Amino acid sequence: MSILDDTDFIRVSTHAAESLVDAYYTALNSARAQLESFYVPVTQLPTGRSLPYISYNGQVFSDPAAFKKSFEEMPWTHYEAQSFDVHVMNPSMNAIESKSKKDHERNMSLVVQVSGYVRLHERKEGPLKGFSDSFVLVPNKEEAGGRQTGSSCEGMSITRFL
């Protein structure tokens, strides 16, 4: 018998996605220096591909610091997330022997899709453009890395696909 049931997966994934959307778009709007903390530390996979894989407007960043720097150099923008959708990609990323429900809740990967509007240049009067972002939330094995939000997405980091 599984420790987590479907209701648990829905509850945990929804709360994690909501926490991500609130924190991430707040950072994009007013705290761009924090962007780097949302991503997994740079690692090289056996296939030669590195993580995180950050794709933004056709430009690929393999380093969260480079993405943050690029975003800090952009003109002012205001993101307004209108909706999100979340699904559990892998309910058990790593084999764990713990009987703790909390440990199992923090051992899944999620895919989060966000859509909304971005206002360019002016907060109240600039043109509105639609945006759509996709994120993969994964358990963060390193306590020092990744975003710590104090919610059910604590200990999770993102790889961003736009």
From TrEMBL:
The record's Pfam families line, in alphabetical order, gives: NTF2
Kindly list the biological process annotations in GO that this record carries. nucleocytoplasmic transport
Where does the secretion signal sit in this chain? none
Family annotation (InterPro entries): NTF2, NTF2-like_dom_sf, NTF2_dom, Nuclear_transport_factor_2_euk
The segment(s) forming the NTF2 domain are 16-161
Please give the PANTHER family that the UniProt record associates with this protein.
NUCLEAR TRANSPORT FACTOR 2
What's the protein here called? NTF2 domain-containing protein
